Amino acid sequence: MSLSVAVVGSGPGGLYAVEALTKNLPDCRIDIIDRLPSPYGLVRFGVAPDHQTTKNVSRVFDKQMVKDNVRYLGNVELGRDISYDELKDMYDAVVLAFGTPIGRRLGLPGEDAEGVYNSDAIVAWYSGHPDFENLNPDLTGKAAIIIGIGNVALDVARLFARTEAELADTDTTDFALDAIKNAHFDDIYIVGRRGPIEGTFTRAELGELGELERGVALVHEEQLPEEVEAEMDPRDLREKVANLKVLRSYIGNDPNANPVKVHFEFYASPKEFLTETRDGKEHVVGVRVERTKVENGRAVGTGEEFDIAADVVVPSVGYQAEPSTGAPLDEWGSTVENTDGRVEPGVYAVGWAKRGPTGTIALNRKDSHGVVNLLLEDITADPAKSGSAGVDRLLADRGVRVVSYYQWQKIDQAEVVAANPPAPRKKFTSIEAMLDALDR
Ligand SMILES: Cc1cc2nc3c(=O)[nH]c(=O)nc-3n(C[C@H](O)[C@H](O)[C@H](O)COP(=O)(O)OP(=O)(O)OC[C@H]3O[C@@H](n4cnc5c(N)ncnc54)[C@H](O)[C@@H]3O)c2cc1C
Fold this sequence. Notes:
Strands 3-2-1-4-16-15 form a six-stranded mixed sheet, with helices on both faces. Strands 8-9-7-6-13 form a five-stranded parallel sheet, with helices on one face. It has a three-stranded antiparallel sheet with strand order 10-11-12, with no helix packed on it. The protein is built from 15 helices and 16 strands. By secondary structure, the protein is α/β, with parallel strands linked by helices. The chain binds flavin-adenine dinucleotide (FAD).
């Protein structure tokens, strides 16, 4: 009797769990369920389009998908097409790998004004995620503010400053390419409550802002210490020193060297979104911030406030779990409630659903493998579980159109064929368009 496992989510967390399961238990049967026809999670819809090399990790994941005992059930959503309890009833084990797809809000006045787009939406829009096909952000203004000092914030700032030529060999969606082509920002501000040492960005992403064709990176010299003085483990220290070195290399940059000034504004805590009424709607016109200092790693307000004018504001302050799956979440709704990946008997969490929205693709590997080890310690096959046969019956009864891995490959090929070289692919940006490609 072989073990039946449902893995919900085909991003790195889920697919590294599949890797560990198939390696340790070659006769287990795995169904990977994803709400979209396309697999790979944030590798497709998060990793920036101008980072195509990073996206190549999907080829590693493909090796899991083609295994005889693994099935891909795309276009099947937990909480919509099948419930959490049904999955638990049907499989010996369920691995929750559905990530943390919702952009965190700052909870400040004016956040719902026109012109404010959370980074979850902006990133998904330029990456072609079907949920954000109609976002249509207005990027025609003179200034943009990105709130946050992590790599996602840097990705958005960089994409906003790119030229059409710089994006030619990427899979940025056509509508985003058009909007970016027609964007003429004079100023893009990257605003953080804390300082350069506390920023969660990395050297490579910081460095790219210094190499933009039409952008120039600008820093306030007084915000950049000459050395990293905080105590931390040696690896973190090396990273912080490297970050600081890149930031300090921007000291003295000529603001007029290029048309788009990309400003780092550290120690500035957003207090409210400034708005004005136009055509009966509230539009953002800037952000009021309070100058801070960092004490014991925390931002403390100084009482000094100032305003930064902007036509577009993109809060980029993290992600949290989607509540509609039916899975138990922690008290803040941030992640799946779990202890080292154990959720409840027979249910496990991996990836960002387990740990929250931090860490690279590679980091998920060790983590998912660790959780699978626990699963293998805990679980034995139960002949009463209906597994794949049960889920097939249930989805057929509900009229769900399941997309297999073979069908995904057809969609993938259609995207590659439709590409305008040197772009690697032209993404379908709706589920209907993907399914139409299968019917052709
Ligand atoms: C904007 C951005 C850029 C990034 N860039 C990089 C980078 O350049 N390099 C790097 O190493 N890391 C990068 N990361 C981090 C990396 O993407 C994550 O570490 C990784 O994707 C987390 O994997 P995951 O499987 O937990 O979640 P995800 O990748 O989010 O996968 C979750 C999957 O679950 C599916 N799903 C969600 N809800 C349901 C449901 N109800 N039912 C069924 N399926 C569902 C989703 O469709 C998705 O396929 C980036 C992250 C972001 C947000």
